[in-house]
């Protein structure tokens, strides 16, 4: 996904003179050609994430469309107040594109991981959040985001599904059956594997914000399972609001809050958080009262 | 020596400040930014109420946001906002808060209050203007000396120097930083007192000068001026084409 992002952004910078890119060293070498081609609109501020956000706000105030990019913990967690004040409070927007997700950087440790990025943006007004499940979903999301001035966060990950669903902006049903299981972004393939022989409905989205609440109301019966690749329960408030007045039970699966002080790979962390197919199957079966 | 100061009697800003503060008399130190703001809007900035939304206008960003009475008075004096807005500061129906909000106040470029945001946004603003070919459009940002405590400023200072970005940062120095900015720069000027050479006010200003502030701006050119002397302030603000620091020293708080 990172390569797709780099290629699409490089094209966008050539296609649309309103586009600007702000980096804080991460991925800078990959954008060298773009920077040489567009020195007035590609900026690497060095290892300065607060400044990266401030510069983005300033660019937007002059009418440009800034794209900011770094590891999720540096882009979002570290610069949270800049994101809060230098964009929405100024009534401007930007496109934030992160890599690293919750535990892609398993070997780097917790400093390079951001399970809480979407929850942090949920404290703020008006952020659209895209969590592509496949690299081929990235260009369309990015190009659409570059065309307007709203606030958009695109969360890239090395974990991806076998195939793309470019129409994943609203809930897209992939399997019809009993209770609804919603998979966000790269959670789709493990969810499909976990529920292969279960009587459930599986729906996919790569755009959890704004959440497709209409689609959820239409699909949800008395039981809903939400599987997200970031902090467990991040979307609980929205699901609760969407299903207000509809008697239901809900299970929210995602990354736990307890820091895993182990390294390994993202697969090890997915297993530890119960987000691999086996772990999901256990949790979903327990919730639905089925025997495994 | 003659010096133009807003704080001289009968300046048009006085009645406007009175409407905000409710006081007939103003303590000079309560309005540390007053003279710099007046010089900016009266002599330097290419911006009027009619051009307040032109893409190539000059930009002034009040980073520190605190104590904005002087800012509001200047905006009213220059016609950006109606004078009667000054009568209600931070009431429920007022557009003028204790910190300015760009969404509520015509002519205000950024909403501030949390310290350490303006300089980074100013860097982005200057870059954005340049990218669009507005090479004559200038960007100014005003900070307080205590605001420099915020580390975010130093990210912006270093980057602006590295790329030699045309940008003017004004630091109002009233010695309010808790730990100060000692040492490191020997270009400190001395001034005669406001009432003439040897006056007590001049000594006061010298005493209050943080000569260490320019040392925190490596790679920037520097003017250190008497923050009440309009001609000195104007000369310093007219330096263009590079990152330029104007330290405007005023009375200690």
UniProtKB/TrEMBL annotation, chain A:
Q: Which InterPro entries does its entry note?
A: PDH/Transketolase, THDP-binding, Transketo_C/PFOR_II, Transketolase-like_Pyr-bd
Per its UniProt entry, which superkingdom is the organism in?
Bacteria
Q: Which residues form the Transketolase-like pyrimidine-binding domain?
A: 1-164
Instruction: Give any GO molecular function from the UniProt entry.
Output: magnesium ion binding
Q: Where would you find the membrane-spanning parts of this chain?
A: none
Name this polypeptide is given: Transketolase
Provide the species name.
Actinoplanes aureus
